[in-house]
Every structure is written in C-alpha cells, then in structure tokens.
Amino acid sequence: MGRFEPQPIDAPGKDFSLATKTEPGQLVTHGQKSPLLTVIQFIMDQRTLIILILLCAVVGYLIPSFLTGKNLLNVMRQVSITGIVAVGMTFVIITGGIDISVGSTVALSSVVAAAALKQGLGIPASIVLALMSGIAVGLFNGTLIAYGRVLPFVATLGTMYVIRGVALIVTQGEAIWDLPKSFLTIGTGYWLGIPIPVIITLVVYLLGHFLLNNFTFGRYVLGIGGDEESARLCGVGVKRIKLYTYGLCGLLAGLAGVVLAGRLGSGQPSVGVGYELTAIAAAVIGGNSLTGGRGTVLGTLIGALILGVVSNALNLWGVASFWQTVISGGIVLIAVLADTLRRRRAR
Known about the structure:
The chain is mostly helical. It has a single domain, classed as ABC transporter involved in vitamin B12 uptake, BtuC. It is built from 14 helices and two strands, in the order αααααααββααααααα. It has helices at 35-45, 47-62, 69-94, 102-118, 123-147, 152-171, 181-188, 196-214, 216-226, 228-233, 238-264, 275-285, 297-317, 321-346; strands at 190-191, 194-195. A two-stranded antiparallel sheet has the order 1-2.
C-alpha cells in the first residue's frame, strides 16, 4: 500500500509553476523511471526466474544431457511431491507462521490411502480419506496456533512427532504393499507424455496462485502476515483465516501423500522425512519472507525448480549425496540472508 502524501493547494497570488528551467530540447517528466531503472527493477522483481534460467543454461552447457526432454521431465517429477507441500507452506509462511509437521502428514496420508485400499474401499473413497486425514492434522495445528496461542514452531514440532507415531502404530512400522495398479497411475502414469504427478503439481500451483491473488482469502493471508493487529482492526477474522491456512497446508500435504503412495506403490510410515525443510527452502528461495506479509506461489515454484535443477546437476556430476545436502543448505542460507538485507533496506 502506498504512503499518503498531502498535495499542495492552489492559493491566489501564488505561483505553483515548475521552479527549474530546462534547456531547449530537454524533456522533463514526472513519475516516470528511466529505461535503465526500469530494466534494473524488472531484474530485481524477476531475479529468481532469471537465476533459474541462467542455472539451466550453465548446467546445460556443462552437461549436454541435462537439457534433454526426458531429463527435464525427470527434474519436474522429482520436485512434484515436495512442490505440492511447498504450496501449502507458502500460505503458512506468508501469515508469519511455519509448519514442520508436513512431512509426517505426508506419511500418515500415504498410510491412510494404502490401508483404505487394502480394505476394499475403492480408489475415490481412499483418496478422500487420505485428504481428510491431512486436513484434520492441519486444522489441529491451526487450532493450537490460532486459538491456543501456541507458537507455530512449537505446535507443529509436537504434531510432527505425534503424527509420525500414529502412522507407525497403525502400520506396526511396516509398509502396506500390493496396491491396485489403477491407483499407481497417480504416481507413475503419463498423460499426453507428461507425468501425472507433474500435471497435478502444476494444477495445484495454478490454483494456489489464483487463490492468493484473486480471492479475498488470499488478501487476508497477506494482510495478516503484514500486520496482524491492523488486519484485526479492519475486521478480518484473524483466527479463522489462520485456521483455514493451516487446514489448506494439511490438505496439500495429504495430496502429496496420495501421490507418493502411488509412486512408491505402497503406504510407508517412514516417508516424508525432511519434506518440511525442502518446502520451506523452496518458499524462501522463491522470495517469500519468513517474517510474513510478502510472497508468491509462482515464486515458490521457481524455488522448487532451482533446488531440483541443483540436485539433478549434482547427480549427473556424480557428487556424493552428503555434499548435495551441504550445497542445498548453503543456497537456503544465501536466500535467507538476501531476504534479511532486503527487509533492512526497506525500513
């Protein structure tokens, strides 16, 4: 929101004409940026996209096999599941919160879907149950945070352990195998040559983008993250919006669990470890502020793709997995530092 500045009022006998003089042929304009400033502003606004393009170009030059259609689809499929989780995490982060229970929610939802299928409930009913389990976890988190006034990190930390424990108890620590082949299509199938998980992920990002930018709910989410007290004074139901936001995060974690179960062909209580960190990293790299009030869903998509490209490139180079973790962590630290410096300049 722009800052209100009082405008001068014309008065008799006062000359409000331009005080400066111009040379012949010199054009004076007001409220317009020079072409150079416009280009610089565009680069700053689209920096994550430009970084992604440059990264792909450099990796493609060094490793020609990277830019093949098969490998690019593989990159998108690799980031699809954590990418879905990252959309819900984006909404939570914009409100100024955090949810580190999403990895456990993914595991629980995959187990619920697999168990329901083994009981013969059918694919649609099994998927609905898995999504409902994710929503239930999200609403539980939202209740603790919005109405119980528990710190988001503390609340979701406890939920993370509880939900993981529930998944282990239900399955006795064993994976649920032999799922119907038609269900596996969700995680391994193709449509028009594009992996179905990639299609699901793109649809989720498109819907998330419109929800954040074209609906009242999205404006409330941004408003709460920007200034919660001001949003409350303006009549926004802050507690209710926070509850819905965490419910949405749980829903998308549940969807990710369904896709993962289809990809693995089983429901496993041990999956999803570290997904919360990857989702947070994608959001931060995509330009979302950890202090809330600013962020975009499409920026998170770019952040997830950057992480995917880095991981894929390191795999093609034969870099050990533990070094990949170090490099990914370094990228996140750089993104957090950049966000901190940007906020300091804005003050």
